[in-house]
Amino acid sequence: MGGDHGPSVVIPAVARAIAVLPGSVRFLLHGDEAAIAAELSKHGGVAGRVEVRHSDRVVGMDEKPAQALRRSKGTSMWNAVEAVREGQAVAAVSAGNTGALMAISKLILRMSADLERPALVTSIPTGRAVTTFLDVGANIDCDAERLVEFAIMGEAFHRAAHGVPKPTVGLLNVGSEEMKGHGEVREAHSILRHGGLDLDYRGFVEGDDITRGVVDVIVTDGFTGNIALKSMEGAARFMSNELRNALTSSVLATLGAFLARPALLRFRERMSPPPAAPLLGLNGIVLKCHGGASDRDFAQAIRVAVDLARSDFSAEIERNMRRLPAALAEQAPAEGAPPSQDDPGDAASQGAAE
Amino acid sequence: MGGDHGPSVVIPAVARAIAVLPGSVRFLLHGDEAAIAAELSKHGGVAGRVEVRHSDRVVGMDEKPAQALRRSKGTSMWNAVEAVREGQAVAAVSAGNTGALMAISKLILRMSADLERPALVTSIPTGRAVTTFLDVGANIDCDAERLVEFAIMGEAFHRAAHGVPKPTVGLLNVGSEEMKGHGEVREAHSILRHGGLDLDYRGFVEGDDITRGVVDVIVTDGFTGNIALKSMEGAARFMSNELRNALTSSVLATLGAFLARPALLRFRERMSPPPAAPLLGLNGIVLKCHGGASDRDFAQAIRVAVDLARSDFSAEIERNMRRLPAALAEQAPAEGAPPSQDDPGDAASQGAAE
Question: Cβ A230–B207 below 8 Å, yes or no?
Fold first, then answer.
């Protein structure tokens, strides 16, 4: 029921997914029975693989998470996550209220291993493949241990989602030298480098490495990650607008754009933002779809959910999480204190431009 | 002497700048006399408006700032900044080592008013005009007071550089609601909103607002700012590459791109990163040019320096800085404690995706 469009996007998405997924994959549809039935009637061949679970109530897109949580029992979102906990579904996919979905998922499914809170992960296209990027907004204040948890979760997710046997991991910073950045990233760097975790850690990376694909997984706190992601989305949107303006600025340009139209459409397709952000670290698989997702986007999110359900990425997260206490003990005391802000030399050495 | 190209870029840039600037604008060129003379001989009409100040030594592009600072006296960079302090020059422009330039500038010029450290500011193109964005890497750890200082400096800079009488100011965050973000941004928000500073403060903005132009000035800490800026640059570079691939993917696309070539070149021009980042808050004007700047970029940086020198933006910074102690007192105690990370409702309310 969630997102900007509800069943009118979700049901066509299910129809698309069913067309490419094996017959063993079946769907529980949570929401208003009548609205769902109306959409289902437009898609032959779908009815045999879905089961409708009626719910009277929905979580509003604009509700504050804490408020939504209090009255969420029995909503379509609650029921979808509850079905994962009860083993009736292997994954939940929602285009609804992000904060509410996180709160409900954490309450119902609980965190896996000793993880503290879910992380929101996204996939960014690069010249070579995709970069797994987290956290993109679930955890605003992150200490070093939290950043290391993200590395563990992100690496297992990348292997599960993209079939890369040993993904490489980088930590987002303002420069690649050891002394760069604030205390938390430098401490996390030290744990990742010397803590004996089973990760192919490659050190610090910078903002422009996200789209360059120098490592498979890039880790940062949810404040920086959210702002970096939205900044890139904004830059991409701005460039698309400018390109459209340029290509309609003269008769010749318009003719040129017409001839290049198929190539430009493929370009636009490749630039579109990723359709789904999985919530990592829960005892169960939950994916958040963009509120404005198209049926094609939502179908893609369903396929990611199926891939994740087939993999044992939760077990991999747990395996590495078991090594974390030893890694933290080994690393202490933290390498080097933060440089004083008053010394112009040291202060400048934190400077990152260039 | 700095940057990737030295005099072979700087002298042609000076020639370009001289062609458009009034005759009263003159130049001191610091560096190796012979190298400068060789370049000057290629540009007639320039010699009458420049004066060469020989220096034997240069700051290396790869030197650590603290190390560069110790042996910087008598380098071309040192002499350029020293000339500003002595009133021989109204501004210094360098394409050299950023960290060293900051350290040397702070040491020689000292900070203006009660500012603590310089901020690096950049200009991002938007659909409407440009966004002034700071700090992009000089200050990694920022408390609320530092963020408010950035707002004061950025607003005065935007007025001086772009002639906007009353620039609007926003604070970068993961959402626009009051409860979003970490303690520092919420406290800065409260000071800016209720502290009685002479600023047109518009509240929180998000990452994609940087290129949208919803406010004139966007303020953030140097860690987030550097990563957001580089992420956008990376996204822009990635899109340009993909566009080039798309437009050479078939005969028709190539033909189309050929017809649209002038428009595509204008597009690329508009997307190029800003050539210079002024160091704000010093008793004097210092601009940092991209190390890889072209003569055209460097000429543009010179013009920005002249505009800044003609304005009284330093006086404006000082005027508002004098109100800061009262603003800090008025605002205390900070509005609301950070929400607990353990409560799933509040925790989720910090979530920012969507």
Answer: yes
Partners of residue A65 in chain B, C-beta under 8 Å: 344-346, 348-349, 351
Q: Where are the alpha helices (DSSP H) in chain A?
A: 7-20, 33-40, 65-70, 76-85, 98-109, 144-162, 183-194, 222-247, 251-259, 261-271, 295-310, 313-321, 324-331, 344-350
pLDDT confidence bin for A331, thresholds 50/70/90: low
Residues in chain A: 354
> Are the Cβ atoms of A235 and B237 closer than 8 angstroms?
no
| Residue B339 clears pLDDT 60, i.e. is over it | no
Tell me the angle at which helices A183-194 and A324-331 cross, rounded to the nearest 10 degrees.
110
pTM value?
0.84
Residues B21 and B91: beta-carbon distance below 8 Å:
no
Measured between CA atoms, the residue of chain A closest to residue B116 is: A342
Q: Nearest-5° angle of CA B217, CA A348, CA A147? A: 75
Residues A228, A78: Cα–Cα separation, whole Å: 31
The residues near B48 (Cβ < 8 Å, ≥ 6 apart) are: none
Number of CB pairs < 8 Å for A and B?
330
What letter does residue A207 receive in the DSSP assignment? G
Under an 8 A CB cutoff, do B228 and A229 touch?
A: no
B130 token code pair: 């440009």
Distance of CA A178 to the CA centre of its chain: 28
At B82, list the tokens: 């020293």
Cα separation, B205 vs B172, in Å, equals: 5
Collapsing DSSP states into helix, strand and coil, what is residue B13? Answer: helix
For residue B202, what are its two tokens?
Answer: 């518009």
Express each pLDDT in B206-263 by its tens digit: 999 999 989 999 999 999 999 999 999 888 888 888 888 888 888 877 887 777 777 7
Q: For residues A146 and A118, what is the distance between their CA atoms, to the nearest angstrom?
A: 11
C-alpha distances out from residue A345 to A353, B106, B110, B224, B287, Å? 15, 10, 14, 22, 19
Q: Say how many C-beta atoms besides its own lie within 10 A of residue B210's C-beta.
A: 28
As a whole number of angstroms, the distance between CA B211 and CA B128 comes to: 9
Q: What is the pLDDT of residues B149-205, one digit of tens each?
A: 999 999 999 988 888 999 999 999 998 777 788 999 999 999 999 988 889 999 999
Name the range with the highest mean pLDDT among A109-123, B72-86, B299-313: B72-86
Residues of B whose CB is below 8 A from A263: 246-247, 249-250, 252-253, 256
Query: Is the CB of B69 less than 8 angstroms away from the CB of A255?
Result: no
Q: Are B101 and B82 in contact (CB under 8 A)?
A: no
Look-up of token digits 């987290």: A134
How many whole angstroms separate alpha carbon A107 and alpha carbon A78?
10
**Sign, Cα dihedral of B318, B323, B325, B331:** negative
DSSP per position, B145-186: HHHHHHHHHHHHHHHHHH--SS-EEEEE-S-SSTT-S-HHHH
Average pLDDT over residues A115-128: 85
Q: What are phi and psi of A85, to 5 degrees?
A: -60, -40
Contact present, B94 and B77 (Cβ < 8 Å): yes
Q: What is the DSSP string of A285-300?
A: EEEEEPTT--HHHHHH
Residues contacting B108, CB < 8 A, separation 6+:
B78, B81, B82, B84, B85
Q: Tell the burial category of B301 from Cβ atoms under 10 Å away from its Cβ (0-12, 13-18, 19+).
A: buried
Helix axes B295-310, B144-162, angle to 10 degrees: 100
3-class SS of residue A208: helix
